């Protein structure tokens, strides 16, 4: 089964989604910062025999609105609400990685009526870290764009399945391969996360929640322990040896964790 396209317009911002039919309940997939909906293709194929799957190019990313005027956390959340509402299939299983996981968490806290269950991949409440926007900006500045080929981009972006996953989000122009996002939009999208933690939103969750953490990821042991202490219904699963892009590097481990979690929902 192949993807169809779904376009959602919200407050003048165009959101492009990949829609894969299935029997339901629906699963909505949110990628991380500087990512793209195609990162979830393998996961979508695995899910589709049992679920309808919608993968979103979030604002500022991929085929969606490239330079939206608002990149606040609230704007990302309202986008997710609009996509879920447009899907028209009732409460969904909301899955997100990194910044997409943070958006998923905030959406589930704000609109519990729309989220049946939550899967956070390398995402959590976080905490103040003022240096993050500058660090991300410097990393994006280091990209030697345009890349002469997808293969060279994949090698630069980490090689293996992680590098390929990132490189597949590039667009081809006459002079080479370019990111489908703008640096300033990416940096601005992180501003609120750098300023504060979101424990109040974490505490507000009322749905079953799976937290998938990579051994070499960005969620420290102290934060993970606090997450489980404050949300007894949350289940945390670690992936040994994996890095932050565990959904690309170890999709087998992610699917194993998700399979047990989805089965538990009944």
TrEMBL record:
InterPro entries, per the entry: AB_hydrolase_1 (IPR000073), AB_hydrolase_fold (IPR029058), Carboxylesterase_BioH (IPR050228), Epox_hydrolase-like (IPR000639)
Gene3D superfamilies, alphabetized: alpha/beta hydrolase
Gene Ontology MF terms in the entry: catalytic activity
Coiled-coil residue windows: none
Domain AB hydrolase-1: start-end pairs: 27-256
Pfam family, one: Abhydrolase_6
Transmembrane segments: none
Protein name: Pimeloyl-ACP methyl ester carboxylesterase
């Amino acid at each position: 089964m192949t993807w169809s396209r779904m376009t959602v317009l919200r407050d003048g911002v165009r959101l492009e989604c990949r829609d894969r039919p299935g029997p339901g309940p629906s699963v909505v997939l949110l990628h991380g910062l500087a990512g793209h909906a195609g990162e979830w293709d393998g996961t979508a194929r695995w899910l589709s025999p049992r679920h309808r799957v919608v993968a979103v190019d979030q604002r500022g990313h991929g085929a969606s609105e490239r330079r939206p005027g608002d990149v606040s956390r609230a704007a990302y959340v309202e986008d997710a609400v609009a996509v879920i509402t447009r899907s028209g299939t009732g409460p969904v299983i909301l899955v997100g990685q990194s910044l997409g996981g943070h958006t998923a968490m905030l959406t589930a806290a704000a609109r519990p009526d729309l989220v049946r269950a939550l899967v956070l991949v390398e995402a959590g409440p976080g905490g103040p870290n003022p240096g993050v926007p500058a660090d991300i900006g410097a990393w994006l500045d280091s990209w030697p764009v345009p890349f002469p080929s997808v293969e060279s981009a994949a090698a630069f972006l980490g090689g293996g399945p992680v590098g390929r996953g990132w490189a597949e989000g590039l667009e081809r122009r006459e002079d080479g391969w370019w990111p489908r996002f703008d640096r300033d939009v990416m940096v601005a999208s992180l501003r609120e996360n750098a300023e504060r933690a979101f424990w109040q939103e974490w505490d507000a969750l009322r749905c079953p929640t799976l937290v998938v953490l990579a051994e070499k990821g960005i969620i420290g042991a102290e934060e993970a322990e606090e997450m489980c202490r404050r949300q007894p219904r949350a289940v945390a699963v670690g992936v040994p040896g994996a890095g932050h892009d565990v959904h690309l590097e170890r999709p087998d481990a992610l699917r194993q964790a998700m399979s047990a979690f989805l089965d538990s929902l009944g």
